[in-house]
Amino acid sequence: MKAWGRIIQVGFTYAGTVVGAGFATGQEILQFFTRYGSAATLSISIAGVLFIWMGIKLMLLAHDLKARSYEDMNALLFGRRTGRWINLFTLVTMLGVTTVMLAGAGSVFEEQFHLPYQWGLLFTLVLAYAVLYKGMKAILIVNSIVVPLMLCFIGMVVWNTWSLPSSGNWLTFSTDYSLLQIWLSPMLYAAFNLSMAQGVLVPLGGQTEDRSVLYWGGILGGLIIGIMLLAGHYALSARMPGIIQYDIPMGQLISNLGWIWQLIFIGVIYSEIFTTFIADMFGLTTQLEQHIQLSHTSIVLVLLLFTYIISQFGFKSLLTTLYPLFGLFSLAWLVILIGHRKHRFHTN
């Protein structure tokens, strides 16, 4: 029973780290999958296989390496010399994503709760410090709460879609996009999310003694991600093509269900922003601890202050500037990870 409990924690932490604000709002599902029509069902299956396969491989490699941070992993994949430059770029990438998440939290407070943007930033920083102070154990607990909440929400969205006349769109909806765009989308989606998730998955693999926990946790996490992608696609495709005009497509799916469900939805969005924020912050902290002679607490405080300063630029401007560059880097990283052969893909 203890082993199954750890497997569930690893699986939920994997899923919670990958599934961020873009997923919760529906934008990622819409842009990477649903707009490509009925082919999205197969491309989501490809993404799900990649998440299971590469999630397991990443954590087992980290376990064998006893990796402390993604720096150790990049040294293995790229060599020491090239790995230094990759680590530097990964550091900048994670700082960028972390700042975008913090800015997104401020935007949720401003747009949904009609509270000052700065309140959202400061509340998130204080909450993040409380979690990061406790380390990996607290991250596991947070994701064990957030992921079931997200699963319940996505289940409710599917239930609300079931009776619609257009509920079969996910199997029949046509598209004019090229085959290259359609089949590249699951690779890009998996690459970006896995490269960012390594900040937590690598230390998690390095700290977990039982390989079977990582193996089955990777399967569970990948399945959860795939199921939630498919469920979101099913619900969004039933509202195509009109749904594509909205900034928060998921919000439109529950707009007629009353304020309670809308409040839960806002909570889900914020929770997913927060899990991604603390995951990247944890990855940055573990990496910097290998180079800077400061305490864990001091590094966390410096990073939180830095993200607070940069987040003043706002959510949208940061998102449109940073993400395209990160996507190209992530695809190269995933290709190298797939091609790496020196690992043992078994559970004992």
UniProtKB/TrEMBL annotation:
Q: Which residues form the signal peptide?
A: none
Q: Write out the transmembrane intervals.
A: 12-33, 39-65, 85-109, 115-133, 140-162, 182-201, 213-236, 259-282, 294-315, 321-339
Keywords, comma-separated and alphabetical: Membrane, Transmembrane, Transmembrane helix
What is the protein name stated in its UniProt record? Membrane protein YkvI
